[in-house]
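Hey all, quick one. A colleague (J.T.) asked me to put the arginine job into the tracker so the inputs and the structure tokens live in one place instead of scattered across chat threads. No bug as far as I know, just bookkeeping. Sequence used:
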Amino acid sequence: MSKQDSRMWGGRFNEPTDAFVEAFTASVGFDQRMAMVDIEGSLAHAKMLHKIGLLNDEEHAAIENGMAKIQLEIKAGAFEWSVSLEDVHMNIESRLTQIIGDAGKKLHTGRSRNDQVATDIRLYLRTEINQCLLQLRGFQSGLLDLAEREAGTILPGFTHMQVAQPITFGHHMLAWFEMLDRDHSRLQDCLTRMNVMPLGSAALAGTSYPLDRHYTAELLGFDAPSRNSLDAVSDRDFAIEFCAAAAICMTHMSRMAEEMVTWSTAQFNFVQLPDRYCTGSSIMPQKKNPDVPELVRGKTGRVNGHLVCLLTLMKSQPLAYNKDNQEDKEPLFDTLDTLQGSLRAFADMVPNLKVNRDSMYAAAKQGYATATDLADYLVNKGLPFRDAHEVVGNAVASGIEQGKDLSEFSLDEMKAFDSRIENDVFDLLSLEGSVNARNILGGTAPAQVLFQVAACRKMIVRK
Ligand code: ARG
């Protein structure tokens, strides 16, 4: 090969790259997604090179103009991506040189694709995570509205999928809110560690040019330049962290999905999903299938897979950069798409659930949901809790035998279970009495739900 090889590193090679290998090693098919941040990074690098005198005024201006043209070409879909130029970085740099000539060749001074790509991914992910944070807040705010509206709506709370105690639907929505709030804080936390700039690390050892790394970092909105070049070009822990946070968030949404699927069955009939979020069956005319929650539940598996993929990708890599790292992008991008899509769907769908208050109430009436309240009542009358548990157990057994709820026994029948029982017991055995009694911080009482809604509303605008 001559020194005029079209490959940007062709100088030391004696034969062209095998066509299959060229396609096999190329990443441009998927990393062109980072084109805009790649240009942003290059512009900051060029500005810094100009500041320290490694680019003159004309060269710097030419780079800026050339990049502006390339940005337009990419936006218009007119940019010709070439697999033989391997990745987004070399495609853009090569086009720049094509447009502006020799000044384009100076852009890569003091830089390697290794610190370039590590910077690009961070820039890209930073914007996308901020988008996820906004989506989470939107979803949370919708949940607060729903919780407020349904603060007094009673449904059975379950443990082991068995009716346990009556709760309020508002309280249930606030549980979802809390899960999402931790997801929000995990993503924010991940942003903090991610926001460090690798540029200036060059291939692995740093560079001999007197780059002003603080200046470039400031231009790009990074908190600081990285402290160790080997680490900065090679670790992808920030991407792993993001995928871990995404996998947890998807897992939360998957749990919500599972509940929505169950609740919308004819057997439960607690909620109806908006029609625009469901599909029908081509053979069974009565069907309204909860496709969106089912898909979110299913897509959780693929995000969990991406997390394992990135962990495995990283686990045996020696310092510093290895080509393995090129495999980080597809799982990362798919995680982003899946998380953002799922958040978008749920943020719109969940607050628009149609809540069937009557079915929820009727379901809470079954299953002796207020049995604990009766036990607590007896404890207040001086019975040790374990004995109270026993008494109520007998009452429930007798209720099951006679097909009666606890609240349907007469006072005399009640007194037969324990003579301490008086007329005031019936207030407690009602579902309303039961939920209202739990007016403790974090409890299910409607008053508590309204208190939390107000506090959470303030919290999400502040943080
Ligand atoms: N496309 C590469 C990646 O995604 C860029 C870095 C390549 N560096 C190298 N020395 N081959 O990781």
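Adding what we noticed when we looked at it: The chain is about 60% helix and 5% strand. Residues 129 and 187 are 7 Å apart (CA to CA).
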